Each structure stands twice: as structure tokens, then as C-alpha cells.
Amino acid sequence: MNEVVTVSVDMSDVRAEVPRTLYGTGMEDVNHEIYGGLDAQRLYDESFEETIPPQVFPHGPIGTGGKECGRQWTEEVSGGGEAAPDDTVAHWGRRSERLSPNGGTAAVANRGLNGWGVHCRAGRRMVGHLFVSGHVDSLEVALQSRDGARTYATANVATTPPPVRDCKVPSPHPVAGEWSKVSFSLCPDAADPAGRFLIRASGAGTVWIDDAYLADEPTDDFGRLGCREDIAAALRAQGVTFLRWGGSMANSPDYLLRNMDGGRRPYEGFWFKTSSAGFGVREFARMSDLMGMPCALSIHAYDATDDAVAFAEWLRGFDGFVCVQIGNEECAGFTPAGGEPTIADTRRYCEQVRRLVPAMRAANPRLAFASAMMWMPDHMDLMEEAFRLTDGFVEYWDLHVRADDTDAALGVRETIRNFREMIRRLNPNTSMKAAIFEENSSIHDMRRALAHVGVLEAAREAGDFLLTSCPANAFQPWNQNDNGWDQGQIFFTPNKVWLQPCGWAQQMAAASHRGLLVAGRTDAAGITVSATCDREGCSAVLHLANPTGVAKRLVFDFAGGVRHELLKATSLSAPALEADNPPDDPNRISPKDVTEPFRANPVLLPFSYTVVEFR
């Protein structure tokens, strides 16, 4: 016999208003979720910049190794051909690749992120371009099998012959500026989930190549924007209601608005030595606008005022809610000299907020702003000083929280309560509120999903004082964990995209949103309920979590003895807290409609999150 748990609900006892923006997701290029993931670019290390870095665990930037041909490219030569990186000339960045066939061939091949492969689909056109300097008799691009034994598509790329010169005068070495952008299209005649892209020179002459690009030919607005369409589709299907762009990548000295002007140029990233600005903050803003979704985006805390103002003016083209966050996790781990944060660090950051926000607000009064001062309860002197200096300048303070275990709600409640008490004590009339732009963890399994359910319970209790809670990170390549942030909601390989349990939990919560939190409780330790209803009191939704390994039978007790009809029950359950969704069984843990069995025998399965709707 299953243990019986009574769920008590009083729909007349309204506790808080729950904002529709609560169900967010955050993205940053931490495990190649952008460059190598959401970015439509199918090549990795497009500019031949990448070196081989050692891994650093659990949470820290990755160092750099020695110079090589970009680590995602392989050089192939025959008949006297030569291929080598060249640090003396580049289109953008620090180096290019030199191909001198010398009567034979010289080639480079790219197999995408981690060498996983370029996904070729029979009849699905791929388009691209590269920058070329110099001239050879023949330059071609191709899609091939991983080993190069089979070619699926080829295209010739034109190069510009050198000018006729006096034979006594040597031909000059090409310099930056003497580059031609050449475009191509390739339509493979066979499918291959793990192919490769080849650039091959033959005959006489020398060419320098740089900044290669290859993507599926766009079929929708997200593809035309530069998104990988299947990943964008999964994000839309997840049904989140708020998007956040930022995180530690915003702390890179090279993460500046002038480098995010829409060009596919390399820049020095935080998590990886070489990142690409091909899909950056502007593309994110356009994507949010296409999805009709409110968003928050980070700029570097010490960016130039003129660039920030120009960006604010550019954002006038968007009608939806846009919040600009000044930096990320400031004064905690990102102090100018490192080490323990100080009052001087705090004041230095707050002066940036006081410099940038008024200038950007004057250029675009519709923008909201958020402080990125890291919440540090063991440094309340710094927190109080930061509030005094930024009160009236920003609408939100970003509170980063942890969600590693099923009792995550306890820590989130404490964080929100402490923050709220501080700002009200210092200024009872303040209009500043909170946002959780990073709900962090180091896992992506069912435990992570139930931890997020707990975070949402605490977040609903905060009502409209809390703008959103964004689990990080939105996307993650399968088996990509360079730095310990193994917490993606949507996973992908070159040819597959699927949700992990936390992604499904967020989808369930967002799909069943009701605007009012009402009184709800259970009489069993560990079994939690978050009860909501619509403003008319016609529909009630209960969010029930069972983190235990034992099934629980439910009895529903609505205040006043009112009987409510059960309309729908949806459950997300797993065989163990450590279970996740692998690519060969991507829907192993996914929501199931359990309405009929729930009507007959309402049971919470072990390790489950269940949403029940009544009227």
C-alpha cells in the first residue's frame, strides 16, 4: 500500500502574483553552447586561431597551448604541396592558413566542434564563404566522408590572379586588406551525420585562406538570422517565457560592443581562448524579438560610453522588454587584481553603473537595467554599499543561486529574503527588485529537474518582486564538459537536438502557468506542492514534487469542501535521480499524460514532478 499524502489547497487565500516571465533560460558560451551550438556555423575555429588548451576543472577559464594549425583543422598535402599556419597575415585575428600546392595539392579539412563531424543531408544545400588572398590554379571546397574517401559535393572557388610585374621584381607578400570574400554552395548527394569540409588548392601559386563559414541553407527567419534551426526550434518548443544572454563570457576584456558589430571576427573569450562574434549580443536581441520574448543581455561593465550609447540607440528598434545588465558577477572572482573583493572594487564597479546607465537611458528610455554585483551574504558591507550607489539607477539586482539538490528551495528562499530585507531596511521606498539570471548547477539529470522545481516554488512565493529564474545553460553539446558546468537543458550533437529533464520541467511549468499563488501544503515530509490559480478562480494548477524513491498516493482537500474536477495530469519521472536523456534514447525522461490513471488512482511516482489541473 502506497503512503497516503493529503494535499490541502485554499484558492481563496492568495499569497502572491506570479509573473509570466518567471520561466526563463540563460545562455553563454560556456561549453560551446553558442559558438559550436546555437550559431549556425558548422565549422569550428573558422579563423585558424585555436590552440590546444589544457582542461581546468571545475569552474575556471581554460589556458592556452602552443601554436598549431587551428586545432579543429587537419592539413593534407600531396605531390610537394605545403600547408601551414601563417602569423604574418590575417583577414581578422592573428593568423591565416597558407596553401602552396607546388604542382600537387595542399588542403585543410574541418570536422566541426570536437571533430564530431559536419552533418550532411542528401539534397539539403549548405552555403558558405571564405576569405582568400593570393592565387592558385584551382581552389575548391567539398563535403566529404570523415576519411575523405567519398565526396558528396564540390564547388570551385575563384581566386584573383596576381598583377603582371617585371620579372626582376618579386611579388609582394599579401597583407591585410588584400582579401576577397568568395561565396559557395554545396548540395550533398548522400547523408552523413559526421562528414567533413575540405578546402583544397592545386596546381601552381599560393593562397592564404581565413574566416571560413559553412551553414545549412536557411529555411526560416531563425536560419536567416544565423541560428541553427533545429536548436532554435527546440528552444521555442520548450516554451520558456524569458531569455537571458550573458554570464562569465561578459567578463572577457575582449567582450566589447565594438567587437560585437555583427561581423564574424574572432575575439579572445573567457572560457576559450578563441571565440567568434558571429552570433553575439545583437543576434541574441534579434532572436528574442523574433520569438516575441522579453530578454536580458549583458554588456562588459567597463565598455566605452559612446559604444554603449550607440548600442542603446540600436535597441530602440525592438518593441519588447529589454533589460541591459552591466557586467557579470562583479567583485566576486572578477576583481581587477583578483582575490577577495573590497570596498574599492565595489565602488569602482558601481561608478561604471552610474556612468553607463544614465547615458544609455537617455538614448533609449524604454530600457531596463540590472546590477551584476554578485550577491555575497558574507560581505554585507559591500552589498549595502553597492545598493546605496546603484539604488535609482537599476531596476533589478541579479541574484545567482545554486540548484544542485532537491532541497534547493531552502537556499533560494533565504537568498531572496535576505536581499529583500536589506534593500527595504536601507530604503523602504526603493523600487529595486530581483532577478535570477543564473540558476546554476553542475548536473543535468533528474535531480537537477527536481531542484529547479524547488527553485520555482520559492520564486512563486516571491511574487512579482522576482522578474525571472533562468536555469543555466540553455544548450550543451552531448558529453561536452570542459569546466564543470554540466547543466544544459537542451542537448545536441551535429544531427540531433533533445531536452534534458530540467528542460522538460521548465516546459511543464511554463505551459501550466497561472497568475496567482494560493495556499497549498502537504502533510508528508519531502513531498511539496506549489498551488496556483487563474485570476477568475476557475482553474487551479498544482505543482507536486516527489524526490523520494517511494510512490505516494494522494488525497486532495480543497478548502470549504469544494469539489473540483480533475482536467489533466502530466508527470515527469525517472528511474533514479541520476538518470538523464542520452542521444540514443532522447525521450527516456519526458512528460507523460497520466490523466486517466490519475483520476482512478492519484499516485505520485518516485523521483517525479507532476502537474495537475483542476476546474
The amount of beta strand, in percent, is 25-35%
Strand elements, count: 32
CATH class wording of the largest domain: Alpha Beta
Largest sheet: 9 strands, mixed
Helical content band? 10-25%
Instruction: From the 3D structure, determine the CATH topology of the largest domain.
Output: TIM Barrel
Q: What is the CATH-assigned architecture of the largest domain?
A: Alpha-Beta Barrel
**The CATH fourth-level homologous superfamily of the largest domain:** Glycosidases
Structure description:
The chain has 615 residues and is an alpha/beta fold. The protein has 3 domains: 3-16 and 517-614, Immunoglobulin-like (Sandwich), CATH 2.60.40.1180; 20-40 and 218-512, TIM Barrel (Alpha-Beta Barrel), CATH 3.20.20.80; 73-215, Galactose-binding domain-like (Jelly Rolls). The chain has 11 helices and 32 strands. The longest helix is centred in the middle third of the chain and has 21 residues, at 343-363. It is globular, with a radius of gyration of 27 Å.
Essential attributes:
615 residues, alpha/beta, Immunoglobulin-like, TIM Barrel, Jelly Rolls, nine-stranded mixed sheet, 11 helices, 32 strands
